[in-house]
Amino acid sequence: MRVSKKTDYALRALFTLVDHFGGAPIPIRELARRNDVPKRFLEQIMLALKSQGWVRSEAGIRGGYVLAKNPEKITMGEVVRHFDGILAPIDCVSVTGYKRCSQEPVCRFRRVFLDARNYVAGIMDRSTLADVSKISPVSKHEVSGSFTGGEGI
Amino acid sequence: MRVSKKTDYALRALFTLVDHFGGAPIPIRELARRNDVPKRFLEQIMLALKSQGWVRSEAGIRGGYVLAKNPEKITMGEVVRHFDGILAPIDCVSVTGYKRCSQEPVCRFRRVFLDARNYVAGIMDRSTLADVSKISPVSKHEVSGSFTGGEGI
DNA sequence: CTTAAATCCGACTATAATTATCGTTTATTA
DNA sequence: TAATAAACGATAATTATAGTCGGATTTAAG
Hints:
Distance between the termini of chain A: 11 Å
Strand order of the largest sheet of chain A: 1-2
Strand content of chain A: 5-15%
Structural class of chain A: mainly alpha
Order of helices and strands of chain A: HHHEEHHHH
Radius of gyration of chain A: 18 Å
Largest sheet of chain A: 2 strands, antiparallel
Oligomer: homodimer
Number of strands of chain A: 2
């Protein structure tokens, strides 16, 4: 049910680049330091982001990375999907990674997962980097306080 | 972002048992056949369900498994959480599996994951086996048709 | 033109999780 | 006592995760 570290790290780096959109390139060393990501690992991730056209790089001594597109043109959903494959909790309710399941004609819990998928896909695909960069950080204790009726999540 | 096969298989078996709640025990062989699950694998899963008090077993020639509790007293959330640990997309927004992250004071995308968590936890923890067993299967093509604005999920 | 600082590239490793399978023992009942 | 179940513990195969490493190439400054 979780997103990978790669996705997490990619988003961290991307939002740093969003903050400096239009400015000078930021080297991996700096992106890694600021976001608490292993530098050699981030290297890999940045290459992936580049191959998707989300960032551009400049080599050499004053080089580094910049955001290649307007932050309104990149969504959380695209990023998560690129690194983790699908957003859906189960393949049989995924559109991009749909796999048929023999139980579909009789399965009842599939509806619940479909609802989860629809909500998650909705917010992820509507959330552009520009939108999200304007959000203020979640306040302390807000997480542990928001129970939902069960034991939390 | 996905639920494991174990969770999937556990739910399949559980709903079969819900359908026969109050009736005679159903052997693993039958649960496996009906739900298209490898028998030896399901064996493991049933033991886990038993250890949670969700099912009871009877050995011997007329033996098998029955649901041990009223299906209104077991939720999807409990089952998913038991096999997959957490429902949250990232540890820093999980209640049961919370882990601190160094970026919390400055992280902005955390809010998006928190929203996802809250919704998913909400439906999972509100959905009892009794509720879900009354749902009719998702109709054909309903999945691929429900786009959300992006590329789907 | 040399050097320092970057990205780029491919391979590699280590660990953990996932998805099972297998052999044997114990219990039940017809 | 034979047939049919669950129970138990070990093991195995595959895949995913989370990195690490060495070296090649590019660039700008001195």
